[in-house]
Design brief:
With 385 residues, the protein is an all-alpha fold. It is built from 20 helices and two strands. The chain has a domain of 146 residues. InterPro entries: ARM-like, ARM-type_fold, URB1, URB1_C.
């Protein structure tokens, strides 16, 4: 259930007919619509009658999922989830559950951040993903006090900031990075990050963590999700010099990060406002991307067909950009051909001509990454929802 909260699927809509084969892309995730229906039935017909029963319900993370639903793009899902949270709040007030005060405090905080709509008949406004994530993690930790994050979220929600000196600082830092990656789902979430200059802080952390592969992967996840939003992508390139930063970061061998970097570059080419970038940089942004692709192809250690395939996709999209310099594009193609020559001895044409049963088509941008769920691509014009 927690996995569903972190990689929340935005495809489902109330009242929408869908094929029986459709559902969450990950087999370990639940369909939020089904969970809402099951919860309604449970509260109507057989609600828990003891404190232990309520604890078991909360430990399933079903209420945490309802908090996450408040960031859904579908107004009907938000309305149904808010009604369920209100019902749980009403029910547990009559129970003697030990965690009651903490749960009700989280519910009051949630009520305070939910701005009422202008018209009472309108559905509840969408809650920024970062707000719903921190609250659902806090709710999750209340019923798992042994979790290392429990005292941190409790102090944060009580507005009692503290600096940690424990040996778990690296684990806490990784958790914060995952929160930042999971929360970037819309233009509203980008506004939260932009207001706090979050990317500038994360970028400096990336540069000082060359040996921490897990942290670097988490930061690349944040960047992939940022560049999956058209507004955030364009803003980062123009105002935060993102492409120059990427070019500097690729000064060292990318290694296992090569595919992630190529997908981020493809996001930029596919989603950024090309006309705005062209006017602001005079086409220089295309030159930098060409340089980045060349650098990745030249410094890639182990030659891999997937790297060549991903590079080809970026090059094709780049060639369609109006006014791109043919000279720099030609240099990239030369490096791609050289990469293919080095790869040729290891290519078995017989295997290549026979499609594998477990083979998957190349993903299309925008490329997003969610914690524990790998790369996820979604079709559309760029998620500036």
């Amino acid at each position: 259930m927690l996995r569903t909260c972190l990689a929340f699927p935005n495809r489902g809509r109330f009242g929408e007919e869908k094929d029986a084969t459709q559902g969450p892309a990950d087999e370990l995730m639940y369909d939020p619509l089904i969970v809402i229906v099951l919860s309604v039935q449970m509260l109507m017909k057989c609600p828990p009658t003891s404190a232990l029963g309520w604890v078991k319900v909360f430990r399933t993370n079903i209420v945490s999922l309802f908090v996450r639903c408040l960031s859904s793009k579908d107004s009907n899902i938000r309305e149904a989830a808010l009604y369920q949270i209100a019902r749980y709040s009403e029910c547990i007030q009559q129970s003697d559950m030990q965690e009651n005060p903490q749960v009700l405090y989280v519910f009051r905080l949630l009520e305070n951040v939910m701005h009422p709509p202008a018209n009472a008949r309108d559905p509840p406004r969408r809650l920024p993903t970062y707000a719903s994530l921190i609250l659902l993690h806090a709710l999750h930790a209340i019923f798992r006090p042994s979790n290392f994050i429990y005292p941190r979220t409790a102090r944060f929600l009580l507005q009692r900031p503290n600096s940690t000196s424990s040996d778990e600082w690296k684990k806490e830092r990784g958790w914060i990075v995952r929160i930042l990656g999971d929360g970037m789902a819309s233009a509203e979430d980008w506004k939260v990050l932009r207001r706090r200059h979050t990317w500038d802080l994360v970028a400096s952390l990336f540069q000082s963590s060359e040996r921490d592969k897990v942290l670097r992967a988490g930061i690349l996840e944040i960047l992939a999700n940022l560049t999956s939003n058209s507004q955030a992508c364009t803003s980062l390139v123009l105002k935060s010099s993102l492409l120059i930063w990427i070019e500097i970061a690729l000064g060292h061998e990318a290694g296992s990060e090569t595919i992630a970097w190529l997908r981020i570059l493809e996001n930029i080419v596919f989603l950024a406002d090309v006309s705005k970038l062209g006017r602001a940089t005079g086409g220089e942004w295309c030159v930098i991307i060409c340089s980045c692709i060349s650098s990745l192809l030249q410094t890639s250690g182990d030659k891999d067909m997937s790297i060549l395939n991903q590079s080809a996709l970026v090059i094709v999209r780049l060639s369609l950009v109006p006014g791109i310099s043919h000279h720099f594009l030609g240099v990239v193609l030369e490096h791609a051909v050289e990469y293919l020559k080095q790869l040729e001895p290891s290519i078995n044409l017989r295997n290549c001509l026979t499609p594998r049963q477990d083979s998957r088509p190349l993903s299309t941008p925008p490329h997003q990454i969610r914690s524990g769920c790998g790369v996820k691509s979604r079709r559309g014009s760029g998620g500036s929802a």
